[in-house]
Amino acid sequence: MRPTLVRPSAHPESGSAYVVVLVVLFIVTLLGLSLTLVTQTEFQIGANERMVTRVFYGADSGVSSAIARALVRSDHSGQVLNLTDTGEDYTGGSLLATFDTGESGTRVEVSPFYPILDVPCNLCEVNNAGTYSGRDYRKVNHAVTAIAQRFVTYDQGVTRRTLAEKALTTMIEVQPWRVPVQAYDPIDDATALQKIKF
User: For the whole prediction, is pTM greater than 0.85?
Assistant: First the structure.
């Protein structure tokens, strides 16, 4: 009987493949988690950008509505617009009572027109021979502010949480313009003047 000799292995690193696979798996897992975090962050940034844009255009719509009311009806008073995402009108007297749980919308508060500059209309002097020969037409610059709030309601419409807010102030020049007397009402109203932000 001969003793059996155990020869040393030609590959002393035979267990290292398992360690290498674990390290590669760990690195790939970290890479996947970091990509998931980046994707989630980008999604949140996009949602916030969409909300801010929606609020900005809500305020812009409030200003456009105020300009249309001033030009068509000579109505220079402030107004509040309640806009729903579904496009349905508000039916109740309360803003919150019309929403169910989780509903969202935009509330736009538009200030009264504030006359900044009131001078005789220079266009009227050019058209003396026409219908604008009356000296009661003026060139008037108005300031108007619209504050839009994006909100969501919960607890059956009892609680409202503001998600975003944007204030937009615009100066509007209109000529020739026959200025109604009520256009100057905000000058003497301190609460109306506080709504103008310029």
Answer: no
